[in-house]
Amino acid sequence: MGHYAAVWDHKAAIEISKDWNGIDQVFLRNSRGASAKISLHGGQVVSWRNDQGEELLFTSNKAIFKHPKAMRGGIQICYPQFGDCGLLDQHGFARNKIWVIDENPPPLNSKESLGKSFVDLLLKPSEEDSKQWPHSFELRLRVSLAIDGDLTLTSRVRNINSKPFSFLFAFHTYLSVSDISEVRVEGLETLDYLDNLRKRELLTEQGDSITFESEMDRTYIRSPKVVAVLDHERKRTYVIGKEGLPDTVVWNPWEKKSKTMANFGDDEYKSMLCVDGAAVERPITLKPGEEWTGRLMLTAVKSSFCFDQLELQSKGF
Ligand code: TA6
Question: Do you know which InterPro entries this protein is assigned to (predicted)?
C-alpha cells in the first residue's frame, strides 16, 4: 500500500497500490473528498468520484480486468489508431500496454498542476510494439484532480528522432448516466459529422441538442472546445473541455449492438454514453523532435439547466 506524506502537496495526495492482477494503480484525492484512480494498465482512468463519493464514469458490471485487454469503461487512451481502420488492434495498442510512472516529466505549464493532485505516466514502445508500429515515440499522460473535483488529462506525444509519423488519438470516455433516454448533448448542433454506422458518410447535425433513441456512433468534426452532457434525472451536467482535440466522438451501442458486445451487459447501454475528445478525422503528423499535446478537462456540475445558463467561465472554459 502507498503512503501519505504529512505535507499536502501533489505527491502527498497520491497513493499507489496494486490491483488484483498485481498491476499498480494510482489513487488521487483532494481535500474535499473527490478522487480518481488510474491504472498503469493502459494509463486508464478507472474511477472518478465527486466529493460525495459518487462514481462519475461508467464501468461495465461484466468488465474483465485482465491484461492485455482494456477494462470496459473509464477513460481509455486510444493511440496510435482509433477504430479498426488500420493494421493495429481496434483503438491501437496504448490502452493494452503497461505504462510506468514518470518521475521527472518535462515541465507542463502551471495551470496543469497548481493546487492539484496529479500523476505523470509514460509509455514508450517495446521492441514488439516497434515491429507492429515502427516509430520511436514517447507518450506521456498527466492526470490531475483539482480542488473542485475537475479532472484533467493532458497527453503529449513526442517523435523521438524517428522519421515523421502520423497517428490518431482519442480519450475514449465512458460517462455514467442515469438513463440514456433522459440525456442530451449540447454544443454539437449544426456541425458536420461522420456517421460510423453509414460507412463514415458525411452528414450535418440538425439545429437541436442531441438526444438518444437508437444506436449512435458519430464523429463530429471540427467540434467546439466545450461540449455538455445533461443528465436530467440525476440533475447533473458533464462539461467536456478540449484543447488540441478537434473532434468529438459520440457513441451509444443501444439494445441490439449491446447484446453482441463482449464484457457488456445487455441493458448497460441505458446507463452509459461515450463522448470522446479526439483527433481522429485527420491524422496528426510529427517530424523528428516535434511534440503534440491534447488536453481533456472534465467537470461534473450539479445542474441540468441548459448549457448557456451554466457558469462555465468560472470553470475556465
Ligand atoms: O466510440 C466509438 C467506437 O469506435 C465505436 O465504434 C465502438 O466500436 C466503440 O468505439 C468500441 O469501443 P470499445 O471500448 O469497445 O473498444
Answer: Aldose_1/G6P_1-epimerase, G6P_1-epimerase, Gal_mutarotase_sf_dom, GH-type_carb-bd
